[in-house]
Amino acid sequence: MNLNKYKLLAGDASLRKFYRSSQNSIIVYSKKNKYLNLAIYDAINSCLIKNGIKAPKLKKEFYDKNYIEIEDLGNETIFKILKKNRNKIKIYSNVIKILQLIQKIRAKNLVTFKTNKYKIPQYTKAKVLSEANLFLEWYLPKVIKKSKVNKAKKEIKNSFRNLLNKLKLRKKVFVHRDFHVSNMMYYKKKIYLIDSQDAVYGNIAYDLASLIDDVRFKTSEEVKNKIFKKFVKLNSSIDQYKLKNDFEILSVLRNLKIIGIFTRLAVRDKKTRYMKMIPYAWNIIEKRTSKNLIFKDLKLKLNKYFSKKLRLKKWK
């Protein structure tokens, strides 16, 4: 297939490439790890659609040629709408309703268009820890002295483990895992979810943390608190104290993971545009860790190895 005749679109942080065809469709191309990026991607989209959530529909699959064609949802993201709309809470209220629908999904086993069975994974503490460790594997060695790397890794990893052991909510729900406004398209006056292939069953606070403490879109403390309260109101049966506890732990670990991922994208994949968001990720982490004594140990370790100047560094 000659992809050069199609318009290459701005992609995400995955190994996929997206092209707009003349057939009102988007070509999703992935040669590496294509089972996840094509087959599972569509299986999760189909699961969302079956449960009343808008997602791109499959038009045709050309798996043997490393691509699929999906519905073209245009270019308008919720991110773009929020940037030019003053009534942010109304928009977020609609997003929270979608999150509630997601968390009601009970499907555990899916079938891909290749007729393979796929079991949605569990988001275990071990998995969350391995993702948080991306901060230690990629960002930490890039910014601190080589002689301090091993000691810093050991100390901070222990803090990660301690925090994970303090999570309180046990019930597992469907987790999109990258639930932020850049992964939501506004099409035909409806909100569509994209980039859903990494879905898991995990903590109910995880997607909420992705949405509220989104490194890609800056929001005020007032807006963050209002979104949280909207979620609480719709989920009054959940212990609010436990929810807040888990929300803050997962937000901090997630944003540390994001710093690691952004560094990996720059170093390994030469995708440097994400590095400019690292100072805001640090800002989110600092605000969360400064207000809750549960983070005392982690905060001491982070302050020990990462100066204020380093956190504010403008990466090229």
- In terms of per-residue confidence, which ranges show pLDDT below 50 for 5 or more consecutive residues? none
How many structural domains in the coordinates?
Answer: 2
CATH fold-level name of the largest domain: Aminoglycoside 3'-phosphotransferase, Chain: A, domain 2
Number of strands: 11
Order of neighbouring strands in the sheet with most strands: 1-2-3-5-4
Largest sheet: 5 strands, antiparallel
**Strand pairing plus helix content: what structural class?**
alpha+beta
Overall shape: globular
CATH superfamily of the largest domain: Aminoglycoside phosphotransferase (APH), C-terminal lobe
CATH architecture of the largest domain: Alpha-Beta Complex
**N to C succession of SSEs:** EEEHEEHHEEHHHEEEEHHHHHH
Assembly type of the chains comes to single chain
If you compute it from the alpha carbons, what radius of gyration comes out, rounded to the nearest whole angstrom? 20 Å
**Strand residues, percent:** 5-15%
Average of the residue pLDDT scores: 94
SS element count, helices: 12
